[in-house]
Design a protein that fits this description.
Elements (H helix, E strand, L loop, with lengths): L1 E5 L18 E6 L1 H4 L3 E5 L7 E3 L20 E8 L8 E2 L16 E5 L17 E2 L1 H9 L4 E4 L9 H10 L3 E4 L11 E5 L10 E3 L3 E5 L2
Parallel strand pairs: 5-7, 6-8, 7-9, 9-10
Antiparallel strand pairs: 1-13, 2-3, 4-10, 4-12, 5-11, 11-13
Helix pairs in contact: 2-3
């Protein structure tokens, strides 16, 4: 038997966003009373809530989201528990030392900080535990397929060089995950398929964990 665990944050009208990003709007377009069925209009960033980054996000010559190899964001994943990390504390290579022999080419790696619990607060976008440049390069050198995290971006200040290190290595970045504490194991099947948005930089995803219960 397997169970599904939803690792996604809600999308709703006026959901929090980075200050420079488009605002999230979920607007009633028509209703059962008006035309016989309910239909809504969505207006939001390609990086709203739980989402993934394609290389084109920071690299003009990078792969766009519709061209991504979906095997990078769907398959067996490794979860590293970093929930002991404090706000604004660095996440570095040493935090993954115990898992180094399980992190290599093609690994789908996810780390947990439980920072998604801060989503309703302004400091969600600024004060989270952050990835160091050294860790980004270490992951790129190991040629992992994907890095996932329950924070809104790897680093609030060095976001440009860190994204470029990871995306030049064609590592898919899945950001804004939630509920990783419910997974209960460090090995599970992960799914985070993007919308097929032609020629663009990223996409919201419905991220799921599939866990064996036998």
């Amino acid at each position: 038997m397997r169970k599904l665990i939803d690792l996604s944050m809600d999308i709703y009208h006026a959901a929090p966003t980075f200050p420079m990003d488009p605002q999230c709007e979920v607007i009633v377009h028509n209703t059962i009373d008006s035309i016989g069925y309910n239909i809504s209009q969505l207006s939001m960033s390609t990086h709203q809530g739980t989402h993934l980054d394609a290389p084109f996000h920071f690299l003009d010559d990078g792969i766009t989201v519709d061209k991504l190899d979906l095997n990078k964001c769907i398959g067996d994943a490794l979860l590293v528990d970093l929930s002991h990390k404090q706000p604004k504390e660095p996440i570095d290579v040493g935090d993954f030392a115990a898992y180094a022999d399980r992190i290599g080419e093609g690994t789908r790696l996810i780390y947990r900080t439980d920072w998604h619990l801060q989503f309703q607060h302004k400091h969600y976008f600024t004060d989270f535990p952050y990835m160091t440049l050294e860790l980004a390069q270490w992951l790129a050198d190991r040629r992992i397929a994907m890095i996932g995290m329950d924070v809104p971006t790897p680093n609030p200040t060095d976001y440009d060089p860190i994204h470029k290190i990871l995306l030049r290595a064609e590592i898919v970045i899945v950001e804004g995950l939630a509920n990783l504490g419910d997974v209960g194991t460090d090995a599970f099947f992960f799914m985070a398929a993007p919308l097929r948005i032609k020629g663009r930089d990223g996409s919201p995803v419905r991220a799921l964990a599939m866990v064996d219960t036998d």
